[in-house]
Every structure is written in C-alpha cells, then in structure tokens.
Design goal:
The complex is a heterotrimer of chains A (494), B (322) and C (308).
Chain A lengths: L1 H12 L2 H9 L1 E2 L7 H20 L8 E3 L11 E3 H11 L4 H28 L8 H23 L4 H15 L5 H9 L9 H31 L13 E6 H26 L5 H4 L15 H12 L5 E3 L2 E3 L1 H29 L15 H20 L2 H7 L4 H32 L10 E5 L5 E5 L9 E3 L15 H4 L4 E3 L1
Antiparallel strand pairs in A: 1-4, 2-3, 5-6, 7-8, 9-10
Helix pairs in contact in A: 3-5, 3-10, 5-6, 5-10, 6-9, 6-13, 7-8, 12-13, 12-14, 14-16
Chain B lengths: L28 H27 L4 H26 L5 E4 L7 H21 L1 H24 L30 E2 L16 E6 L10 E5 L24 E5 L11 E3 L4 E3 L6 E3 L5 E4 L8 E2 L1 E3 L5 E3 L16
Antiparallel strand pairs in B: 2-3, 3-4, 4-5, 5-10, 6-7, 7-8, 8-9, 11-12
Chain C lengths: L1 H24 L7 H9 L15 H6 L3 H6 L4 E3 L2 E4 L6 H11 L1 H4 L6 E3 L2 E4 L7 H9 L21 H14 L7 E4 L6 H11 L1 H4 L6 E2 L5 E2 L7 H10 L14 H15 L15 H23 L4
Classes of the chains: A mainly alpha (494), B alpha+beta (322), C mainly alpha (308).
Chain lengths: 494, 322, 308
Amino acid sequence: MIDKSLNWVDDRLGIAKGGRTFLDKIFPDHWSFMLGEIALYSFVILLGTGVFLTLYFVPSGHEIVYHGSYVPLRGQRVSEAYASTVGLSFDVRSGLLMRQAHHWAADIFLGAIAVHMARVFFTGAFRKPREFNWIVGTLMLILGIVNGFLGYSLPDDLVSGTGIRIAYSITESIPLVGTYLSFFLFGGNYPGSGIIIPRFYVLHVLIVPAIIVGLLAAHLGLLVKQKHTQFPGKGKTEHNVVGSPMFPTFIAKTTGFLFMASAVTFGLGGFAQINPIWQFGQYEPYQISYAVQPDWYMGWLDGALRIMPSWEWVGWGHTIPLEVFLPAVVFPGLVFNILIVWPFIESIYTKDTNYHNLLDRPRDRPKRTAAGASMLTLLFAVFFASSTDVMANFFQLPLLDVLWFFRFFVPLAPIVAYFLTYKICNEMRAAEGIGKRKRALVVSRSAEGEYSTVKSEPRPGDAHEELEAIPVPTYIDTTHPDLATAAGVRRVIR
Amino acid sequence: MSDHNIRLDGPLPPAALDDPHLQPATGHPERMEALAAVAIVIGMIGFVGFIWAYWVDASTQWQAATLTVGMLGLGIGTISWGKYLMPQGPFVEERHDFHSTDDERSAFNAAITGRGGLEVKRRGLLLGLFAVGGGIMTLALLIPGVRSLGPKPAKSEDPHGSTDVSLFTTNWRQGSKLVTVGGRQVMVDDLDVGGVLTVFPQGYEGSSPDQVILIRLAQQAPNEHYTLEPPGNTEWTAAGYVAYSKLCTHLGCPVGLYQEKTQQLVCPCHQSIFNVNAGAIPQFGPAPRPLPQLPLAVDATGQMRANGTFDQAVGPGFWERP
Amino acid sequence: MTARLAAPAALVGAVAVFGLVAFSSGPARADTSSTTTAPTTVSTVPGAQPGTVQQTPTAVTAVPSPSAAAKNAAPSNQGGIIYTDLPASFIAPGQALFAANCASCHGPLANGVVKNGVAIAPNLEGLGAGTVDFWVSTGRMPLENISAQAIRKPPRFNRIQTLEIAAWVQSLAPGQGTKVPLVKTAGADLESGNTLFTLNCAACHTISGAGDALAFGAYAPSLHLATPTQVIEAIRSGPGNMPRFSPGNITDTEARDITAYVTGVLQHPNNAGGAGLGGIGPVGEGFVGLLIGVGVLMLVCFWIGDRQ
C-alpha cells in the first residue's frame, strides 16, 4: 500500500533517488550540533504561538476606555493595542500562557542562536565552503533581534513605549538623514501620527518573519547540500560524515527535541512571569518607570548607550549626537559587519583556500579563539552595563561607581580577554595528550652509551575498539542472517 | 568501505538482523522500551490534563503544568526510542566536492559572457536605455513607498510651526498657562518647597515635546527670582519655581526622577544627571546638553504662566540642530 | 546504563520541583477580582509591628485630648484622610524618649546639631508629627550608622512610643508640618491611583514599587513594606531625596488613591503569569531565559548527543 503510493508519487515527481539520499543523510551525533535546533524549534514555537496571538491582538494606537477584568485599569484611557494585549492575557482562555510562551521562546531563540554561533565560530565551521551559511545565520540573528524588539514594542505598555522613544531618538541621531528617517518611520515628530504600532505590527508578523523563513530555508538547504561538519577522530575524514541517519534515528531524536523545547518554553510560560504589562500600564510619552531595560538581546546596545561619555559634536550649523550615534548605530554596525566578513578576513589572513569539513579544536586556533573570546567579553561587558542601576541597587553600591567601573571595564576587558585566551590556548596545546592517561617513558641506553627516550605502547584497555562505520543499509534482510559477514562488518582498533 | 559505493546506483545491499550496526545502543532494550512507553503514556495523561485544565478554565499554572508534562513525556519517550533503541551504527556518508568540472565551468561562463555578453555588446544602446529605465522605475516606485510614510521635517526655526512636523518648536508661548496632564491650572501656591510637577501648556495636555518639569526651589514672592548658577537663567524663575523641558537631551526619555536633597534631575533610562540649581547642566552620564529652561511668570491671579518659550530645540540632538 | 537513565530521570525531577515551587508561591489565577478585594482587606494599622505594643489609630484619636482641641481645630477630614492631632498627654513621655534616644544627634531641643560648620543632624522643629512618625516607624531613625541614606529596619519603638516622640516634636512648633494621617483605603479609586503612581512615583520607585539605586549613593526604597500611613507621610513630607507633594499638587483624595494602589496592588501584585522574578523586568527575565531556558535545553542536547 505504502509502496504503491510512493511509486505513484515517484512516477510524477521522481523523488525516489533524491529521497533515498535525503533519508540516508548522516547527522553527526555530537551534542553541540543540536544547539542550532534549539533556535529552530523556538522559531517553530514562535510561529505557532504568534499565530494564536494575532487572532486577538488589535494593532491600533487608537484610544479607548479599558473595561476588561484587570481592576486597577478599569476606566483608564488606553490604546487598543494595550487593551487587547491585556485582554488576551486575562480574558482569553490560555491567552496568557500563549503570550508568555511566545515571549520566552523569543528570548530562548536569540540565546540559542548566540550559543550556536559561538560553537560554529570557535570550531571554525564557517570556513570554506560554508561562508554563505555563516552569513545567512548572521542575517537571521540580526533579523531576530529586530523582530524581538518589534514584538516587544507592540503591546504599547510603559516599558516598551520607552524603548520606542529611544529607537526614535537613535534614528534621529544619524547624520544627514536621521531626521527624515525618523519622521518617515513614525509619520512625524515623536510620538508620530499614531501609526507606529500598525507599522511595527506588519513588520513583526509578516515582513521580518517571512524573510527569516526564507533565510531559514536557505540555511537548512545549504546544510543538506554541503553536509555537516564533524569533529575529527573515529574514522572521520574530510571526505565523509559519520553519525546517525536522518531516518529514522535522527528524526526520532529531533522530534523528541521539539517536544522538549516546547516543554521548557511552555513551562516557563506558565511558571515564570514575563513582561506583565498590566502592571506597567499604558505608555504615555511623559511617564517613565525607573529600572527599565530592554529584553536581554537588546541589552548590549542599551549598556553601550549608558556608559558612553557625552561627546556631542557641534559645528558648521549642524549637530552630530555622537553619544548616541556611536554606541547605538556605529557599534552594532561594526559588530555585525565584523561577524559577516569574518570568514573572509580569516582566509585572507591564513591564506587558506582549502575545503574544511573537519572542525578545529578551539585551542588549536589560539588567535581565532582569542578574538572570539574578546568579542564575547566585549558584548557581555556592555550587556551587564545595561543593568547598572539594578546592580547598584542589588549589591548596594553607589550608582556612579558602577557606571565608572563599566566605562573602564568595557574597553579594557576584551583586551585582557584576548591575551588571556591566547595564552591559555597555547598552554593547553603545549600540554600534549591532555586529558588522556599518560604513557610511560622508556629510557634506554644503546651499546655506544647513548640514551634515548621513547614512549611505551598504550596500556591494554586504553585502545578503543569499535565498529567501523558503514553506509546506511536498506534495512533489514531477516531471511539471510549469513549476510552479516558479507556486508563487511569489521572491528577496528583506534 | 569501497564495498558500499554502489549502493545508490545498483541493487542495495541489505544488512542482516544481527549486524552489530543495527543493534540498539542499550544492553536492555526491553527495559528501555518500557521506560519510553511509560514516558509517552505520562505525556498522554498530561495532554488529557491540559484539555481538562482548559475545559474548566484552570489557572495558567495548571495549563502550563499539564502541557509541560505532556511535552516532556512525549519528548523523553521519543528521544529514548531514537537514542537507545534505534540502530546506532556508526554509519557513514561519502562527501563529494561541490565544484563542477572545468568543462562545465567554462561552458557556464561562456553562456554568460559569450552568448549573453555578445548580444549585450552588440546592442549597447539598448542595454544603456534598459539600465536607465530600470533605475527610473526603481526611483518612481520608491518615491511613494518612502515619501508617503511621513511629513518632511521642517527645516528652520519657525516659532509657530506645528510640533507634528518640526523638531524646533513646542507649543509653549508667551503667557501659556501651566496645567497638569489632567488640565488643572497650576497656581503659585500649589507646590511646597521641594515639590515637583509635570506640566503642559494649556490645550496641549499630554503632548510629548511640550512636557515640562516644574520644581519649587524656594518660598518666594511672585516677583522674586531664585538665583540659579550659570547656565541657568535667574530671570526665568518665578516665586521660587524653575521649569525645565522634561525631555532628556540624550534620547528623549522623560527626566522624571527628581532627587530633592541633592537638587538633581536623573534620567531613569541612562542615568544622565542634571544639576537643577545650575540650569540643569549635565553632571554625569551620556546627556550632552542642559535641559532647556522655560521662562516662568506668575500673573495677578496667582496663575503660573510661561514667560516666553524655549530658546532652543528640546530633546535629543539631530543633524539640523544648529 | 544507569547513568544514561539518570539524565531523563533528573530532568523529570527538576521539572517537578520547579512546578511545586511555582505552585506554592504563585497566586491562584488571573482572576483579578482578588485584586479588587485586596485594598479593602489591607490593615489600616500604621506601622504595627509584631512583638510591640499595638494600638489602632482609631484608638489614638479616641483619646480625649482637651489641649489639642484647644490648640487646633477639629481633625481635618478630606478625601478619606484624617490628619490627627496627638493627645497632649503624649508630649511629656515623648520628650523623655527623645532625650534618651534622639537628642545625642538632634540636640535636646531637637533643633539640630552643627559640628565644625557641618550639620550632622537636621533641625526637627516645624517638620510635624507625621514626618517624625515616618522616620521612626520605618525604623530609619534612630540611625544605626551614618551612611548616605538611612535604611529601613525594624522600628526601635512601639506604636505608642513613636507617636509620643512625634507629639513632642510637634509641640515645639504647633500647627506646622505634616500631621499623622489616618487613611482608609477602602473605596479608593485604584485606576486613579495607578495613573498618579505612574506619573509621580514610578520614575524613582519603579513601576512595580521595587525601588532602585539613585545618584550619589542614594536609592529609592522598595514600597513593598510601606503602610498606608507611611505612604501618606512620605508623600506629604518628602523624606530624604524624595520631593514633597503638597495638597496643591496631589490632593488628599489623590494621595489616598495612590496609597490604595501601593498597598493594595503593588504589595499584592497580580502575578497571574507565574513567579514574579523580583519585579525588575527584563533583567531578571533575561537571566531566567538564558539560564533556565537555553541552559536546560543545552542539557537536553547534552543528553541526546554524544559527548566525545
């Protein structure tokens, strides 16, 4: 029956050959290759919960009187966007769960991208032929951050409204065109003509996700076309991939992983409150709360803004607000551009034009590892700088001391991190056979009286016996048990 | 390994049931199967529980708990099946170079540069016209796509321009009455020393560029001026009141945090600190300029009024700002 | 083999523990009717502390005080706040308490002490009983050690003693300063309180009332322990770095609305979505999202995949 259907489809589409290759596709088993899947499944959850939310959210800045079930707001004039978000939290069954799961999934999505990207970077998986996929991934990171900010802004609550205000001023800070950009984006001087919520909405639910879906398809398509990288060892070469087949082993694991990601997201969605906008109230441009931070993935920009000295440039009848333009426009622009061109920088620097399918150990590329650690340190430092007030309050330190600390820490820490990492990598490389049982040194004296030192053979038991990898067989012939030998099963000692 | 290179073209070599590559990863498959089954059954119970929780409109926590148990059960069950019970191999896949042969490459390049390029060279005029036409089309489509988005910012400092299209103006005029966001008129006795109030020009309550923070620094007669250190303007104070634009000169957040004892205004967004006694000059933080000061006056009825407007654009810096 | 089984078992266990904690600490449900009833059930005993002599404020006003009636008009009652005059009999014991506990800094006449041209303690004359009540009932006075800002701690005096000290300080400048307010938050307008709190208070105390660090070592304290009386006293007297909000700025009715919002909603927030994560917004959320969200899923990766 199934055979018949498959044949029917193959007659028309010719899927059998490519389909077989696809089902036989080998996925490396190492756990770090699943980090990207966290991002993938968070994105799936984002799409699912997001569709639910669109059914109830009203993207409008139009003012109405709130009459919902949250009492301290009853009778207040709020925007439809805000009222509908509070409404879908309290007056739509499962609405709060879906909204919070959506928000947590966004936080996890970007966190997983960051971790995945760090893995790819430090192991050199971005090298030829995978530069395209590195760029596609970086673009998805950027779009993910943008879409996170857009979605965070939609409820029109006090905290996110402050974020929109800051976004307006950042746009305004761009020399020459900033004023025009912000006027066009918002429909006039801040707060604009009330169309920013609908505009953010169409960007958030349609345009940006559509681009991300396209890039995601390209990301996975390139992955299938170019096949996975793998760590060296165990019969792994530049010309093969060793692991589990797509069907059924990998499918089972990855489907289970989708369930696990859902479990964590919905668990957080019901037990850890996120963005309780009913407590924040409607945004008004003259109101503000202290301790307002953006979501974590925007924190590094906020931190850079906080610690920047007040270096406004004024001259020739013009003003360039460098204290905004540098940390909020130039800095992220530099970071993302460095990320995008890194594979090319590295290949120019190393003059390496070979294919690379086997991964590096981070310690074996001390300069790259040090550069990555330096960049991460920089991003973490500015990220922590975005919570200066919360830190000062929590640790009972003077606020200005904390700010001054970060003004020095942010530029200095990456430099220290670079040299420290470089040193550690070299030390680790120098220590041969690290993490393995030491082999005894045998010192012998020749007849001429010359001493020489050789390493003894590995101890019995240290050598690892395992199966040699075979191509995925078309399962399983139960009628010919004697084929076991014919299929070339060999044990190899490594 | 070469034994298997034929697998995609010819008849496929089967493996026997007892091939070590096909054995489960666990030594006790029946136990693991039982465990996976139990996990999936727990998951099923979880999902049924979620339907119950939804049906009775139980709390978000119950919904999340049941859904999480369901997802966990299914997840653990499926992963255990895949990880411990399915054939573990190791299996291998050959990798092939991506690049085409030299012949294929040169044929491809020739199709572009030779076949297409020749035609393009032969009709250079058409190509030029096509490029220009395409450029004009892009421009024509972009103009409404961008220009309709919003008004053009007003270039110069028109004191009576609308704040909707100009970053230079506010709605403060000579004699504007100070009112609260609720529209209540502010009288000279309304604030005690150390009091603070957000005010707007009457008729523009809640307007973003017009927000002003009014602080009473001393108990003075209506015609007296409170002495401010430069760059503060002493003449612009009245009855011990001083008023500054509430828009931070850094990023336009409302500078609503008034530290009364230290006489500082702090921006809650990025902790710029302004000295209230010295014309709100920034003492620390990223804000580059003092908050613009609003001239104040008290009329004969004790009503607080603006005695003019700001002498500069309020809020954060921008290119056209002189 | 058992080690491999341990991983899923540990996961199930961790989730179960997490669930129990959240269940036991979380509120019942997004049923906001509980929020409506909360303000009405808030005790109106100002500063009552376990283990100290307690006396309800109504009892204080019930004490016949001929001298107070002679000095001042009847207690003013506007917008749900009663500003009480403390009985004259409180003055003498108050002076004794002051001399024993406060005079070393503020001076025996409470007019402040200046050493080497630096005021080490302010003049209290004319600040009123309400101001004194705020500082003493929140435990900020007497100071334990001199720091940039007095911190809230368990009060040293019981309710009566506190009011006695306040009465004595008030008697130094009768009719001046902030009186001790009595406030009934029942029937207050929570919506109005919400709006006013956001406009006037959230810039320092944060929108959740959690408080935050200010410039030069100062900080805006958390409002989660404030009693209705203390909220009104703080609004009216502006302790420390806090601005003063006079009735011309925030009327008594509005002050009562704010109080109801602080003690009713902020101190009993509707955390329908689960654990409140400290009410500090995206900082806490980011840590949970990265450590628990991404972290747990990385552990799952670690379980699923090979580790060599």
